[in-house]
Amino acid sequence: MSSKPLILQSVARSFGAVEVFRDLSLEVARGEFVAVVGPSGCGKTTLLNLLSDFDKPTSGQVICHGSVRMVYQHGGLFPWLTVSENITMGLRHLTNAGERARQLREMLRLIRLEGFAGHYPRQLSGGMRQRVELARALAGETDILLLDEPFSALDYLTRLRMRRDLAHLLHERPCTVVLVTHDIEEAAQLADRVIVLSERPSQIRCELHLRATRPRDLTHPEVVEATHRILSVLGLEHDSESAFAVI
Amino acid sequence: MNAATPNSKSRLLPLAVVLCALGLWWMLSALHVFPESLFPSPVSVAKGFVEEFQTGRLLNDLIASLFRVITGFTLAVALGIPLGLWLGHRTGARTALLPAINFFRNLSPLAWIPFAILWFGIGDVPAIFLIFMASFFPIVLATIAAVASIPAVYFRVAQNYGYRSTELLTQVTLPAIAPQVITALRVTAGLAWVVVVAAEMIAGRDGLGFAIWDARNGLRMDLLVVGMIVIGIIGVVIDRLLVQLMKIQSVRWGYEQ
Description:
heterodimer, A: alpha/beta, Rossmann fold, six-stranded mixed β-sheet, 7 helices, 23% strand, B: mainly alpha, MetI-like fold, 10 helices, globular
C-alpha cells in the first residue's frame, strides 16, 4: 500500500458561480490523523465529499488508496437495524459467519456497549449512537476514516468523552483519519496535523503539527498552544509568539 | 396496583360509554319517542341479529364483503407500492404522472359505480374494481411521498458499505418507507371498507352493503341496524389488525420522536 493513501492535486471545485476550491493540494500520510478547521462555508464538507468519492473535482485530481468509510454528524445509523445489525454492516465482506460474530463482539466490547447489542438506535443516547457509528466504520478493514463533525450534535461533556473514546478506538484499530470540525479544541486534542482553511475560495491558511501522543488532555500545553494559535489565525484572538510555523 | 389503574380505566371507560349509549337507545325506544318502524329497539335488533345469524345470511354477507375488500385491497397494494417506488425514484415519470394520479385520487370512487356495473355486471367484480379504485391511488401517492422523504444520508451510507441495487431496495428503501406506508395502508383499508358497503348497495346481490339495502327495501329497520353494527365492528377489527404492524420492532422508529 502507498505511504500516502490520500492525495489531492491542484483540486478545483465550483458550484455554478461559487468557487469552493481553486487550487488545493494536500497529502495525508498513512496512519496520520488530520483535522480540518475553518470558517463556516469554507468547503469542509465539500472536501469530505471529494475524498469519499461522492463528488468529483471540477479540475485536478483526488487519489485515494484503500477503503474509505465516513461517519456523519448524526442520523447515519439505520434506525430499523439493531446496534449489532448496524455494526455488522461494516463486516459484510466477511464470508465466515463465526469470524463476523467474533469481530462484532470485539467492536461491542471496544465501545463498551455489550449490553446494548439488541437495542435500536432510538433507544440509545446521542453519544452511544456515535460510538456505534464509529464501531461500524472501523469494523473490518477500513484504511481511511472520514469524520464529518461527528460529535457536534452532542453536549460538551459527552463530546469530551467521545474524544477519549475515539483516541482509544484508533489505538486499537489504527487507520488514516480526516476529521472535519468547527471545534478547534477537538482538532488540537485529537489530530497529528491541523489544517486551517481560509474563506472561499478555500486555501490552506496554516498547518500545525502536534507531536504529543494520544490520548491528550485538553490542558496539555501543546493542545493549549495549538488552540490559541488556530484562534489567532482565524482572527479570534490577539496574536502572540508561537512555536508553530505558519505555512 | 397503582400502575394497573390507568390501564383498567382505559378499558372500562369505553365500555361505560357503550353501555350508556345502549341505555339511552333503550330508553328512547321504550318511551316511544319515535315510532318503532323508524327507530327499532335494542331488543328487536338483538332478535334480528339472532335471526340473521341462524339463517346463515349474516356470515354469508360478511364473508362476501371481506372477500371483496381483501381482494381489491391486496391488488391495490401489490400494484400501488411498486408503482410508487418506481415513481419515487424517477423524477421524469413522476412529473408526467403525478397530476393524473392526483386527479384520480380526488375523484370519489363511487363515481365509478355506473361504469363498474356496465363493465362488470353485478357481483364480486364491480365491488373489487371499486375498492381497487379507492385504494390504489392513495397507496401510490403515499409510497411516492415516503420514498421522497428518505434522508439522502441512508443511501450514502449504503453506498459506502457496498450495498448493490437489489440490496438498496430491500435493505434501505423498503425498511425506510415501511412506517409511512403502513400508516397509509391503515387509512386506505378504512376507506376500502367504507366503499365496499356503497358498492354492494348498488352493484351487489349479497354482502353487508346489500343486506342494508335489502333491509331498507323490506322495511326491516332492525336488520338494517344489525348490518350497521357489524360493519362498524369489522372496520374497527381491520384497523386494530393493521395497528399490530406498527408495533413491529424494526418499524417502531417511524412512530417515535
